[in-house]
Amino acid sequence: MGAPSIRVLVVEDYKPWLRYISSELEKLSNLQAIGEVSDGEEAVRQAQELQPDLILLDIGLPTINGIEAARRIRQVSPASKILFVSEMRAPEIAEEALKCAGGYVLKSDAGRDLLPAIKAVLQGKRFVSANLADPTLSDAKDEQARNHPHRRTAKNDHEVKCYPDDAAFVEGFASFIGTTLRNGDGVVVLATESRRASILQRLRLEGVDVGSAIEERRYVPLDVPDSLPKFQMAERLTSETVRAAAESNRRVGVG
Question: Where are the beta strands (DSSP E) in the chain?
């Protein structure tokens, strides 16, 4: 008689990602998906009713966010292990999430990290995607800086991200753009029409006021250039956005 299956509740409101996670779970024969939920309130109810062994939890959810849902789940299903699967990279968000979870996987790294993270969390270990600096190290870094004020720390301002599919691409870019706009900064998006539409839909689902950002010239969507004149126009518009941001002491992201 084999070992009992590990019962998994998946909480994700983006259907392409839900399908991707389900396909990944099928790779481990001892995992059994017992429920799929698309909002935070329902996640708490299902966790209380089903008492799953493992919960894969997104952060950007309707009704209540994933972190608040995790806090409530801790009360109604304390034995359930929680693994966050999100593209949110802000250290303060990850730090708060890890207070009530065993791991944090970036969606853009899920192809490499999801299954190892599941195994680690089920064993009671912590797992954090390598591309997300462990927020628990922030205090140690601050202390190091105080003790060595003349030591310089290298900072990488440019990242190259690889996404396993279009769904991951849209999720990753929407998360980056949403964070940028909420901070009051500007972003220029060069993408195909279909991808721009998907990103816009995702931003609106997350409650981002894209209309105001467009009016304020903080969100500039552009089609992928297919000729030199179009590229030069995109470059000019990007320069205008950078100049406008500099005048108001803001930053600009180019996606």
Answer: 6-11, 31-37, 54-57, 81-86, 103-106, 127-128, 186-191, 219-223, 252-254
Q: What is the CA radius of gyration of the chain?
A: 20
Beta-bridge mates of residue 220: 188
From first to last of its 255 residues, the chain has per-residue pLDDT tens of 456 799 999 999 888 888 889 889 988 889 999 999 999 999 999 999 999 999 999 998 889 999 999 999 999 999 999 999 998 888 888 899 999 999 999 988 888 999 999 999 999 999 999 887 554 544 433 443 444 444 333 344 445 565 666 777 777 778 778 777 877 778 887 777 788 888 888 887 777 887 777 777 788 877 765 433 444 554 555 555 545 555 555 554 444
Report phi then psi at 60, rounded to 5: -80, 85
Q: Which of 130, 139, 78 is nearest to 103 (CA)?
A: 130
pTM of this structure: 0.59
- CATH of range 6-137; options 3.20.20.150, 3.40.47.10, 3.40.50.2300, 3.40.640.10: 3.40.50.2300
Residues 173, 199 contacting (CB under 8 angstroms): yes
List the chain domain ranges: 6-137, 166-254
As a 3-state breakdown, the chain gives helix, strand, coil percent values, each rounded to 5, of 50, 15, 35
Between CA 99 and CA 136 the distance in angstroms is 10
Backbone angles phi, psi at 37, to 5 degrees: -125, 145
